[in-house]
Amino acid sequence: MGNGRADTGAGPPSTTGEGTVGTPATAAAEAEPALGRKERILEALGDRWSREILLMLNDAPRSAQEIQAAHRIPQSTLYRKLHELSEIGLVGVQRSVISGDGKRIELYRSLLDELRVEMRGARLRIDVRFRDLAAERLKEMWRNVGSEASGA
Q1: pLDDT at residue 81 tops 50
Q2: Is pTM beyond 0.85 here?
Q3: What CATH number has the domain bearing residue 99?
Q4: Number of domains observed in the structure of the chain
Q5: Long-range residue pairs from 61-69, CB within 8 A, at least 24 positions apart, any chain
Q6: Contact status, residue 52 vs residue 66, Cβ threshold 8 Å
C-alpha cells in the first residue's frame, strides 16, 4: 500500500512513506506527470458523478449495474467516469464474477483508503493513502477457504 503527499503550491512537492507525489496505484498512473495527476484528482472530487461512484465503491466492491441502479447514472456516463477514475488510479477492478447467464461481471472498488485535501496559506496539499486490492483479494480467498473447510 502506498502513501503519497502532494503540494500544489510553490516549491517542490513533499513526499511521505514509501511513495512519491500521489503514489500511483497502477502502471498507467505511474507514467502520468505528478502535477497532472493532482489536478485530475481534484477535478474528480469536484465532479458529482465521480464523487458518488468513489463513495459507493469505498465500502465494498460493486458492479456497474449496482452503481447505475443506486444513483441513476446514465450508462455511458458511468463507464466514462469509471474509465477516468481508473486512469488516475482511484478505482480498480477487485474481482470478476460470472453471472447466472454466463456473463463476466467486473466488481469495481475504490483504491482510496484515505484522502485528505488541506489548504494552508497559498498551498494546497493532497494526502493520499491507497488500498491494496491484491491483499484484499487474498484475505477474501482465505475467508472463503476457511468457510468451506468449516462447512465440510
Answers
A1: yes
A2: no
A3: 1.10.10.10
A4: 1
A5: 61/94, 61/95, 61/107, 61/108, 61/109, 62/107, 62/108, 62/109, 63/105, 63/106, 63/107, 63/108, 64/106, 64/108, 65/105, 67/108
A6: no
